[in-house]
What we know:
With about 160 residues, the protein is of the alpha+beta class. The chain has 5 helices and 5 strands. The chain has a single domain (about 15-135), classed as Cytidine Deaminase, domain 2 (3-Layer(aba) Sandwich). Helices cover about 35% and strands about 20% of the residues. Strand 4 (about 115-120) and strand 5 (about 125-130) form a beta hairpin. The longest helix has 20 residues, at about 140-160.
Amino acid sequence: MEDTRNQNMQPGLEDRVVKALIQRSQKAKDFAYCPYSKFRVGAAVLTVDGSFFTGCNVENAASNLGICAERVALSKAVSEGHQRFKAIAIASDLKDDFISPCGGCRQFLIEFGSQWNVYLTKPDGSHRCMAVEALLPAAFTPEDIQKEKKEEEKAQSVDNYG
Ligand code: THU
């Protein structure tokens, strides 16, 4: 059953596409490598040109080296030339909660735009959809880096030409 408390949801994803995306995230979860937490997560991203990429969490004995499912899926997409996304679905085994991305993953998502959709799901396929920007308000983004560069350039040109 669909949760209707959608926040800042972007238009345009047909129900069947949402379903396909969620199913892919659930399948990806089956590959989770999580011997330490035993907490399986899967993710699937949809690019603007209609390609899907999936990921699962991959843990490590050196625990800080583990990586979340969302980052695996996004990195797979980016490493194959895709940087523009419509949506990501996240799946876990939590029956009573919509799985929500960790803070680091929120930052990873907003790197590629603030206005695309994140489907937080339950194993029964029900979901809650939120825009990336709703998950990370007052974010530090690539635009902020650009601002900094522009300030430097301005200062530089004053130095050079008075
Ligand atoms: N995990 C994810 O893969 N995505 C999330 O959004 C939340 C947490 C993983 C990291 C770790 O392998 C396990 O879940 C428990 O934290």
